[in-house]
Amino acid sequence: MSKATIPIITAFERSPDRGQGQARDMRVRWALEEVGQPYEVRLLSFSEMKESAHRMRHPFGQIPTYEEGDLALFESGAIVLHLAERHAGLLPEDANARARAIAWMFAALNTVEPPIVERGMAWLLERDKTWYGERQVILEDRVHVRLRELSSRLGDAEWLDGVFSAGDLLMVTVLRRLNGSGLMESYPSLCAYVARGEARPAYKRAFEAQWAVFTGKAPNG
Ligand SMILES: N[C@@H](CCC(=O)N[C@@H](CS)C(=O)NCC(=O)O)C(=O)O
User: Fold this and answer.
1) Which of 15, 25, 89, 147 could pair covalently with 11 via S-S, beta carbons 3.0-4.6 A apart?
2) Ligand 1 center from residue 62 Cα (angstroms)
3) How far apart are alpha carbons 36 and 39 in whole angstroms?
């Protein structure tokens, strides 16, 4: 990819997670780092995200987005898949292994992330309600179901299906959304799995880049 087509992603100007790398630009940054693709970042305020200029890129007025020449993409999973298909390193060469890795990408976003997000949103928006305690138990049970199932499938393996793939990249970022909740601690193999992801040099570079936005030290932060 030439300098002229250096991709531009969007991220929060002020991430509500205070630089903990839980916003979804982290997945895209990590994928870009894994494949060695330099990128630029356009930081957006919440109001800028809802303006028509950004809605041209993202119909729901959210981050992340990805622009590369004439191509504009939204949805973190689609962006990671795009990068994984065009660069080596995030999807296996073997066609069946590749299809299975893509299945894990969907599993991360469609099966594991929804109960985690629902629990997080309830805490954010409903925790002052009288019924929150009862709802919290139900929502946490749903998260535990998925964590139990995932932990049982992962077993003692390093990654979900052989070598590290975009499926692992997405799954690790999804599981990290539980940081601070105490829900992962009963699943040591999942904790070790997330730690393996976080130990990857590409992850560390991506984390540092988004942390620099929070601390105001990013080049365009
Ligand atoms: N399914 C989308 C979700 C995007 C999303 O929820 N982005 C959040 C940040 S992690 C956001 O922009 N929130 C602000 C808002 O919705 O107003 C994806 O994976 O990209």
Assistant:
1) 25
2) 5
3) 9
For residue 10, the cross-strand partners are 42
Q: How far apart are CA 169 and CA 146, in angstroms?
A: 17
Give burial (CB, 10 Å; 0-12/13-18/19+) of 151: middle
Cβ < 6 A, ligand 1 pocket? 23-24, 49, 62-64, 75-77
Confidence check: pLDDT of 1 > 80: no
Please name the amino acid found at residue 166: A
Tens digits of per-residue pLDDT, 108-149? 999 999 999 999 999 999 999 999 999 999 999 999 999 999
Q: Record the tokens describing residue 2, joined without a space.
A: 């030439």
Helix (H) or strand (E) holding 65: strand 65-68
pTM of the full structure: 0.96
Closest residue by CA, ligand 1 atom 14: 62
CA of 137 to the centre of ligand 1 (A): 25
Helix (H/G/I), strand (E/B), else coil: 41 = strand
- Per residue in 195-212, pLDDT (tens digit) is 999 999 999 999 999 999
- Ligand 1 atom with least separation from CA of 22: 10
Query: Which atom of ligand 1 lies nearest, measured to the CA of 25?
Result: 10
- Please give the average per-residue pLDDT across 188-199, as a whole number: 98
